[in-house]
Design brief:
The complex is a heterodimer of chains A (116) and B (116). Chain A is mainly β and 116 residues long. Chain A contains no helices and 11 strands. In chain A, strands 2, 4, 5, 6, 9, 10 and 11 form a 7-stranded mixed β-sheet that branches. In chain A, strand 4 (31-37) and strand 5 (44-50) form a beta hairpin. Chain A is globular and about 45 Å long. Chain A starts with a strand and ends with a strand. Chain B is mainly beta and 116 residues long. Chain B is 0% helix and 50% strand. Chain B has strands at 3-5, 10-14, 19-21, 24-26, 32-38, 44-50, 56-58, 64-68, 73-78, 87-94, 105-106, 110-115. In chain B, strands 2, 5, 6, 10, 11 and 12 form a 6-stranded mixed β-sheet that branches. A 4-stranded antiparallel β-sheet of chain B has the order 3-9-8-7, with no helix packed on it. In chain B, strands 1-4 form a two-stranded antiparallel ribbon. Classes of the chains: A mainly beta (116), B mainly beta (116). The interface between A and B is medium-sized, with 31 and 26 residues.
Chain lengths: 116, 116
């Protein structure tokens, strides 16, 4: 199993709603990532979890709240978002780099978020 | 600090022609290098990677890339383009030693169009 599964694939929400994006992997990877991607742009790193602990927060606004309940799951809780937060949100996972292992990232297909 | 420059935001080739997508990097140490492909409304898929050793690396779908330290380049090539190669391609760089998670710096991307 070499998949990273993201749900939902599409989400439309109002600025006062609370919603969550979910990500799951069963590859035994111990690092998980959230990226935001606007149209025609490269992915921008938001958060990194390493061994279920938040290791990197790229100065993301607090209306985005990540959670890593266990080594296979990663959530992104959304609250009071703005229209400019509309984007493709990508989850990724990787093994810890070690020896010949590059620790490359495996990406999910993303959750397309529209904020009205 | 590391950076990646992808020359040409749009590249068009005829079906059956050579594909050449350019990537130059800046890094204080020999980095790990990656090429990812993104089809419309999908996540990123790893095409190939360079870590150490052989400088010519082969990836999926007939793509290959050559690491040239003297030119700080990692250009992606495919001898004969197929219509299904039309997609966005991202070059990414990472320091070889990055702890338990791999932090990627992405280039701005190159949109490949394949003409019939």
């Amino acid at each position: 199993d070499t998949e990273v599964t993201q749900t939902p694939k599409h989400l439309v929400m109002g600025m006062t709603n609370k919603k969550s994006l979910k990500c799951e992997q069963h590859m035994g990877h111990r690092a998980m990532y959230w990226y935001k991607q606007k149209a025609k742009k490269p992915p921008e790193l938001m958060f990194v979890y390493s061994y279920e602990k938040l290791s990197i927060n790229e100065s993301v606004p607090s209306r985005f709240s990540p959670e890593c309940p266990n080594s296979s799951l990663l959530n992104l809780h959304l609250h009071a978002l703005q229209p400019e937060d509309s984007a493709l949100y990508l989850c990724a996972s990787s093994q810890p780099p070690s020896g010949s292992l590059a620790g490359e990232l495996f990406f999910g297909e993303g959750s397309r978020l529209t904020v009205l | 600090a590391q950076s990646v420059t992808q020359l040409g935001s749009h590249v068009s080739v005829s079906e059956g022609a050579l594909v050449l997508l350019r990537c130059n990097y800046s890094s204080s140490v020999p980095p790990y290098l990656f090429w990812y492909v993104q089809y419309p409304n999908q996540g990123l898929q790893l095409l190939l990677k360079y870590t150490t050793g052989a400088t010519l690396v082969k990836g999926i779908n007939g793509f290959e890339a050559e690491f040239k330290k003297s030119e700080t380049s990692f250009h992606l090539t495919k001898p004969s383009a197929h219509m299904s190669d039309a997609a966005e391609y991202f070059c990414a760089v990472s320091p070889p030693f990055s702890g338990s998670a791999r932090q990627l710096t992405f280039g701005s991307g190159t949109q490949l169009t394949v003409l019939p």
